[in-house]
What does this fold into?
Amino acid sequence: MTDNLFRRLGQLYADMEQEYGLVAGQTGLTCSGCPENCCTSYFQHHTHVEWAYLWEGLGNLPDQRLREIRGKAGEYVHAAQEMLARQGLPDVMCPLNADGLCTLYAHRMMICRLHGVPNRFTLPNGQAKTFLGCFRCQELLAGKEKTPVLERTDFYRRLAALEMEYIRGLPYRPARVRLTLAEMIRIGPPEFNDPAMSCATR
Ligand code: SF4
Ligand code: SF4
It folds into this structure.
């Protein structure tokens, strides 16, 4: 079952990338030579299915590389906690970034695939949210009347459906997810480390 879910999540990711590529092409945005590195941005992720898919990728890495990444993830979690305690937004390099490149590019999370270009989505309650894109994209679009926008709503719907299916296949009712990627790496795969599982099976 998981293979089928992961295949469809992979297709969803591919569709996101295609749409992102179209909008980035229309704006002229490229990350090449950018003075910023968005892999230091602080994001929390909210689905078990993406967490599990991330671990499918991590599980295929050589043991030594995985140990290094888990060590970096621990440092990330510690540094982020300190920054949050000082009321600041954490600004720490993602443990999967090596020399500016993503170690697990094919398994990176949804937000890594959509950040950058102007985008919008509509919440189930009808409320619309819009984002102007990264600073570089905003510079490129400054003064332009018509700007392309990536529509995220359908992508969110599809991800929510995959998440529901994943959860229905679990032998326990999982807790809500609100974890950074580094925390997901530190904790381990969701099926063995969800706090709700230890309660349900006690
Ligand atoms: S998304 Fe924008 S800010 Fe981030 S690396 Fe790419 S160009 Fe730079
Ligand atoms: S998963 Fe990859 S693309 Fe996403 S923040 Fe980490 S290194 Fe960057």
In short: The pocket of iron/sulfur cluster (ligand 2) is lined by residues 39, 94, 96-97, 102, 108, 112, 181 (CB under 6 Å). The first strand starts at residue 97 and ends at 98. The CA atoms of residues 24 and 127 lie 25 Å apart.
